[in-house]
Write a structure and sequence with these properties.
single chain; 5-stranded parallel β-sheet; 3-stranded parallel β-sheet; 11 helices; 10 strands; binds NADP nicotinamide-adenine-dinucleotide phosphate
Length: about 280
């Protein structure tokens, strides 16, 4: 079974669009997401365009603010602080990566926690690990939604997550743990990775290396979630971290790249923007 993130996200966005359509009458306006793009990295431009398109589909107001890569950290932080104060803004996202002279950590911690639609703010991260209410990071949230939509039982299962980044590996592992999986986190120093991955009922791969996971690393019936987004060195096309052609016949469930986790990440960004809007507007 192939889980199409493209199809699932289209269905969820249509549901959100119906919800948002009632907001002007109910609350006087629609949610407003501001995306800041620094520089003109082609991948970042494409991600930001995807976010604007999804906002349009859902009926969310989207403002993309572009700044040159020479912007100083102080200028960027002061732009974020203005948006924090702006009552018409519900969500703020700064597209990563940033130029080297700007500290990503300082940028992330400057975004008001209640407008942190990416769920990267240290207080949101801390709340996630303490099982407190928080804004969930989009990619891990999307992965859990995909597993549930595919009817995968997570509770009691052995999950192996390859990758321990703050953005994907660690929060995915935490969400799987919260769903009562028994979770192992693997990384670049893990010894004998294949013997570990072969024991997985659910394998989540977030490394960033084309076709790193080969058929011999996966047992029959495994649920395989491929987070990686890479360029195939031979064809130049987008591909995941998993050798899809070889593993798809063995896996009970698998996500393709493109069209898997990526669309679900943007879908969850829309959901987070709506949640931030509702939280702010109903608090008043
Ligand atoms: P990252 O910060 O570079 O982390 C990569 C992780 O992979 C690290 O924890 C690293 O281990 C581990 N790793 C590297 N080589 C390994 C090896 N040979 N064996 C085992 N583990 C290894 O990357 P990231 O931000 O998590 O992103 C991972 C991938 O997901 C990238 O392709 C990225 O483009 C993609 N991504 C996709 C989405 C989406 O929406 N689809 C969202 C975010 C990211 P160490 O910690 O030991 O260095």
């Amino acid at each position: 079974m192939i889980i199409s993130g493209k199809e699932l996200s289209a269905k969820l966005k249509a549901e959100m669009a119906r919800e948002v359509a009632a907001f002007p009458e109910k609350y006087g306006r629609v949610p407003h997401l501001v995306v800041i793009l620094v520089g003109d990295n082609p991948a970042s431009v494409s991600y930001v365009t995807g976010k604007a398109k999804a906002s349009e589909a859902v009926g969310i107001r989207n403002t993309t603010i572009r700044r040159p890569s020479e912007i100083t950290e102080q200028e960027l932080l002061s732009l974020i602080k203005d948006l924090n104060e702006d009552d018409s803004v519900d969500g703020i996202l700064v597209q990563l990566p940033l130029p080297e002279h700007i500290s990503e950590a300082r940028v992330i911690e400057t975004i008001a926690r209640e407008k942190d639609v990416d769920g990267f703010h240290p207080l949101n991260v801390a709340a996630l690990w303490q099982k407190q209410p928080c804004i969930l990071p989009c990619t891990p949230k999307g992965i859990i939604k995909m597993l549930k939509a595919a009817g995968v039982r997570i509770s009691g299962k052995r999950a192996v997550v390859i990758g321990r980044s703050n953005i994907v590996g660690l929060p995915v592992a935490k969400l799987l743990l919260d769903e009562n999986a028994t979770v192992t986190i693997a990384h670049s120093r893990t010894e004998d990775l294949p013997s570990l991955t072969r024991q997985a009922d659910i394998l989540v791969v977030a490394i960033g290396r084309p076709r790193f996971v080969t058929s011999d690393m996966v047992s029959d019936g495994t649920v395989v979630i491929d987070v990686g987004v890479n360029r195939d060195p031979e064809t130049g096309k987008l591909c995941g971290d998993v050798d899809y052609a070889a593993i798809e016949p063995k896996a009970s469930v698998i996500t393709p790249v493109p069209g898997g986790v990526g669309p679900m990440t943007i879908c969850c960004l829309m959901e987070n923007t709506i949640e931030c809007f509702l939280e702010r507007i109903t608090r008043r």
